[in-house]
Write a structure and sequence with these properties.
With 249 residues, the protein is of the alpha/beta class. It is built from 8 helices and 14 strands. The chain has one domain: Acetylglutamate kinase-like (Carbamate kinase), CATH 3.40.1160. 45% of the residues are buried.
Length: 249
């Protein structure tokens, strides 16, 4: 199973350690790859250095002078997460060209779109009983770092490995009439998700996640789950199909 981890679920050290414990427990039945972002950590490091933050279309504008800070922040978080998960190794996407990417839009600076995944490296680590914990910095054609959206990076990893993925977020899943909890959709086929994005009941911050889920399915993942990382036991429940919204081909 691929677990995309980030955002609000990382703000609390106690919650972060609880999720790490769930990942460690899940390994008893599922080999796990963790792909993480780190928006709050990046924000803190940029602010400490007086570098302004700007987003366009949900993506962080990353000029060259900010890229180093982004990578530095994610590297520190990566090592902390791998220690908390245990029996894990922290990797950035440009280690052994784990994540290869190209510039998405020159106007966004050093923001990348994943073009390749070193799946062999991940399989080797999993075969040795080691959990890869992957930070979402990729290597570009010029050999320098590119900042990659963690949702899309995780989706690319799931597609490359042909395994299911869980996107941990701060809502219970996809709602047909957000925020009405009774409208939570436990299962959505691809066609209905695509219709929902056109009709507008899938919108806002959920759009990048469902698009990453659809991209993962297109690349070969058998399913994608969007679930709350703020809820105890969510990973085991997601593995059983009992939490969040499961999106299938």
């Amino acid at each position: 199973m691929i677990v995309k981890y980030g955002g609000n679920a990382m703000k609390s050290p106690d919650l972060r350690r609880a999720v790490a414990g769930e990942i460690a427990a899940l390994r008893a039945t599922h080999p796990v790859v963790v792909v993480h972002g780190g928006g709050p950590v990046i924000e803190r490091e940029l602010a400490a250095r007086g570098v302004p933050s700007e987003f366009r279309g949900g993506l962080r504008v990353t000029p060259p002078e900010a890229m180093h800070i982004v990578e530095l922040a994610l590297c520190g978080l990566n090592k902390r997460l791998s220690q908390e998960v245990g029996a894990a190794v922290g990797l950035m996407g440009r280690d052994s060209e784990l994540l290869r990417a190209e510039v998405l839009d020159p106007a966004l600076g050093r923001v990348g779109r994943v073009t390749g995944v070193n799946a062999g490296l991940l399989r080797t680590l999993l075969g040795a009983g080691i959990t890869p914990v992957v930070g979402c910095v990729a290597v570009g054609p010029d050999g320098d770092a590119l900042n990659v959206n963690a949702d899309t990076a995780a989706g690319a990893v799931a597609g490359a490995l042909g395994e299911g993925i869980v996107f941990l977020t701060d809502v219970e899943g996809v709602y047909r009439a957000y925020p009405d909890p009774s409208s939570l959709a436990p299962h959505l086929p691809r066609a209905e998700v695509e219709a929902g994005t056109r009709a507008g009941w899938i919108a806002g911050g959920m759009l990048p996640k469902v698009r990453a889920a659809l991209d993962a399915l297109q690349a070969g993942a058998p399913y994608a789950v969007i679930a709350s990382g703020m809820t105890a036991g969510v990973l085991a429940a997601a593995a059983r199909g009992e939490a969040g919204t499961r999106i299938t081909p």
